Amino acid sequence: MYIQLPIRISRCSDETLQSQIINQLRDSIGNGCLKPASRLPSVRELAKQLGVSVNTVLLAYDELHSEGIIERKPGLGTYVSDRRPADFILTPAAEDGAGAQCCERLADRQPPVFSGRRQMVVRDDSAVPDIDFWLGRPDAGSFPLKAWRRRVNVRLKHAGQQLVNYGDPAGLYELRAVIADHLAQTRGFRARPEQIIITHGIQEGLSLVSRLLLRPGAEVLVESPCYTGAYYLFESYGARLHSVPVDTGGLQAGRLPPGDISLAYVTPSHQYPTGYTLSYPRRQQLLAWAWQHNCYIFEDDYDADFRYGSSPLPALMSLDSRGCVIYAGTFSKSMGAGLRLGYLVLPAEIAEHARTVKSQLDNGNSWLNQAAMADFIRGGDYLHHLHRIRERYRNRQETLIRQLSRRFGEAEVSGTEGGMHLAWHLPDTFPDADSIQRMSEAVGVGVYTIKNCASLAADNSRISHRVLLFGYAAVPEVKITEAVARMARLPL
Asked: What pLDDT digit, counting tens, does each position of 9-65 carry?
């Protein structure tokens, strides 16, 4: 087994075939394309690839070997030497110079059309505290590995052409069908599989809808505070954003703006990041406003699978009689973001347009993950998994609240009805949230503020400075207890 080297031979050149091979290999090794200890094709293999005689390649290899650039390992093959002459290696200074020249050339080109801000989703592992309450992260140890492996193996055994063929850009039909049944049972609305688009998660769903509905200058309504993945995306499309604050009843529907609004983005089940639930009267008020203004609502139900102690309020889509709600769900919180599986449920009138947009974005998701997930849900494994981790997450939430109250007095918290994180509203006598976040990090505890958990507030409200956020799903009870004990020793 060998790589095919990008060597081009010209029989019209004044340079000999042997010299062409030597010089191009020198260049590839010198600029780092062929790294030290990389295996090279055998003499016969390279001669066959280039259409030259074996002797021509042999002489080229002999020359490079004599220069110490390549080495022969008896019985193993020919390799790029890891003891090359020092003056042969491209220096960092030379690399920087090449980069600077490239930047000078690019400066004359038209700048990229896209401009936007990037949210932080990938973290530097070296900077993660000992006990980390990062938001939105499931417990890796709770992943149903055996059941998932069984479903994947069965599908692989009978895959046939499925692994080599493109599928429907909207997603595997059987997965869309079982999602439709699942939503009917758990979220209270019926949807046809044709209304469902399989995505790589909520973020792709937002991108798809933005491409479908937004033009530069479009008016978009968001909550304050708001998920930055949505806010930055709408901003990048040139939208004009209207922020409406939230309180204990969720989005303040009495402050909805008049005028031509193209899209309203909301997280009604578990507002991100405060955790407030949009009350039933406000849900009705929001829908009436959307119907009046011909506005679509994007309902982000990112962690609605987790409810503790009470039935969830009906999804906005279940209350919508005029087809203005776009519902988004994901398996990133219940299973894991690594599977890259989510879905949109769209009003029938725009579902086919959305399917076209999806085909232009990426032509569909992985068949294997979709097929395994369809079996996982249909066979009852998913509901069993949800029941198990709901209990685990509820116990962790209760432990966190109990420890905060024990160490700091009765804790005022929000977001306890469901989800994977909660918000601690700090007592007036405590330092601000930023100060406590920094002090906690110094003792190995990662807690987060509105400003550093993929969210932002449009105003300088109290919630921006007096709330600490705890993602508890991935933190065992013993670690939660230890973390709060460390925080209790801080000079608060």
From this structure: 999 999 999 999 999 999 999 888 898 999 999 999 999 999 999 999 999 999 999
Q: pLDDT tens across 207-258, in order? A: 999 999 999 999 999 999 999 999 999 999 999 999 999 999 999 999 999 8
Report the predicted TM-score, pTM, of the whole model to 2 decimal places: 0.87
Instruction: Give the C-alpha separation, 460 to 23, whole Å.
Output: 63
- Give the distance, in angstroms, between the CA of residue 462 and the centroid of all CA atoms in the same chain: 29
C-alpha span between 171 and 193 (Å, rounded): 10
Angle at the Cα of 469 from the Cα atoms of 336 and 264, rounded to 5 degrees = 70
Structure token digits, residue 447: 């807690």
pLDDT value at residue 351: 96
Q: In whole angstroms, how far apart are CA 42 and each of 32, 257, 359?
A: 20, 72, 43
* Residues belonging to the chain: 492
Reply yes or no: is the peptide bond before residue 111 cis, omega within 30 of 0: no
pLDDT tens for residues 157-179? 999 898 989 999 999 999 999 99
> Quick one: residue 81, left, alpha or beta (phi over 0 = left, psi -120 to 50 = alpha)?
beta
CA-based Rg of the chain, rounded to a whole angstrom? 29
| Site of tokens 């200074």 | 93
Relative to beta strand 421-425, strand 325-330 is: unpaired
Pull the structure tokens for residue 329. Answer: 């769900």
pLDDT tops 70 at residue 101:
no
Triad 430, 435, 439: Cα angle to 5°: 100
